[in-house]
# Entry
Amino acid sequence: MNEKKIRPEIPSAYWEIKQKQARISLVLFFLLFLFYLLTTGILTASIFIVLSFFFPAFNLLTTGVFLNFVTLTLVISSITTLINFFAGKKEGVKFILNNLRAYYPDQADRYHRTLLNILEEMKLSSGLPELKGYIIPSINLNSLSLLDVDGHPAVAVTEGLLAEASRDELEAVVAHETAHILNGDTFALTLICSLAAFYEKLYSASQTKEEDFRQDSLLQTKKQQTWSPFIYLGSLFSYFLISFLIIIISRNRELLADATAVELSRHPEALARIIYKAHLANSYLGEASLFTPLFLVPPDSREINDSLWDRLFNTHPPVLKRVQLLASMGHKTLKDIVEDIKQQESSRQQARREISSETELPEEKRTAIRQQKEIASAHLEKGKFWLVKTAENKWLGPFHLAEVVSLPYFTPAIRIKNLKDNVEAPAREFPQIRFALYRQIRNQPLDAGLTARCPLCQASLADSFYEGVKIKHCPVCRGKLVNMSDLEKIFARKEYKFSEKIKEQAHQWKQIIQEPGRRKKLLVSKRIALCPLCGLQMIIKPFNYHLIIPVYKCLKCQVIWFEADELEILQAIIESQWKSSDQERNL
Ligand SMILES: [Zn+2]
Ligand SMILES: [Zn+2]
# Structure
């Protein structure tokens, strides 16, 4: 393709974009109407034909009946178009953002701040009055542009992309997405995806989620899955709708956006590098496949060739073609780009700081930590003198006060027993329980003396940063308190590398995961621990579905307490899984 053909035109003023958007809106409305006219036409016609076998009054060949058929089709398709168009336009973006679990960047986070700075620069150089940012919590590499709920353009990037991209690459990605915004693609595609999301939304609204918060089971919260043919019909329909609309919209828009991005950021190689990286890494974004036309790289990019079928039905041109084109703009070849990426990766590996394992600490220090943990745990064990009577009249326990009030079936009316004083009564009659409930209502920690203290050794916790994420850590036993919502960031970022000891432990854990018997052993080593934030007893649950390693969790505060090395070992496991899947792809 020669360069002239893909030379884009950047709209010079914002009102030009607005005008373009109005045109796109009109065209899409018309296309949607056409789509419904066709589908309802075929549907009604087949119903009429079937009925005409039994009732001659439905014979389409009669003029009166045919007129009725035309009116009916027109009315139905107009109404459906109107509902779909305006409901989709109103709710679609929210649905897409919810589906991607996207949220605004956090000023306190170093990686997020870089994105915000780049967005600010891009806003100025592109002349857009507003350019918002969104973060998608996924370790995979991708980005997209869309119009926010308030109509302002926004660029969303994954945590994985933020972690992997160098500054010039991130600039190039933002430039690419801004190009889509300027070219009007963002508007068109957001609208198309919103229209299609209408059906997904209808389906998900009809479904209720039931969650299982039982504390004693090792099972994580389970969503009840109800099989329904509607999910398939709905997705099939939205898939056809998207394909129908996208085929009509120019497929050159990715190449066009790449070219505009180069004009905006002047870094063709940087864009080539990050597109190639996203193509090699995983660009899959969960069940958001419906929105693939919005993405920088399609989730199945490795399977797209340049065949006629792919040219017709794929939303993105083959990645290698794009990378080659961009490389040539920077007077480089595909080989140069791959070489640059390799170089970048090796200098990055060298810059990583190594973390050593707790087991590498001097023996006397480890013994001291162990003793302190035992003292703290014995102290908490002493508080375990409460029995609770179940609905089946069975006594359970002994529990710690912090556990009693957080039991899922706890009410002030259940009968409990204080073993220390040997008193049995309804829970509300114990002053300790009343005090605990009072503090819970006021959102105060249960035991003020234990807040911000390590759940296992009771040393004071300190604020610190880990992989650019704010956490609390215990300076004595090296445990870490991490927000569940920050985990994707930590797994995506690679500022640290791990000592051989940690890698060895990661290898052992991988085997433990496969053997239920040994998994129980890990569980037994866990003791009673109170959440440093709310003071309720932390529950011991598997880290997640895939890595069923028991960790301390507080579901109320949405935090996890990792004992020394646990987080690092999990990181090492996830990293090694990435590497092995890379090897499968012969990289
Ligand atoms: Zn500690
Ligand atoms: Zn808590």
Notes: The pocket of zinc ion (ligand 2) is lined by residues 531, 533-534, 536, 554, 556-557 (CB under 6 Å).
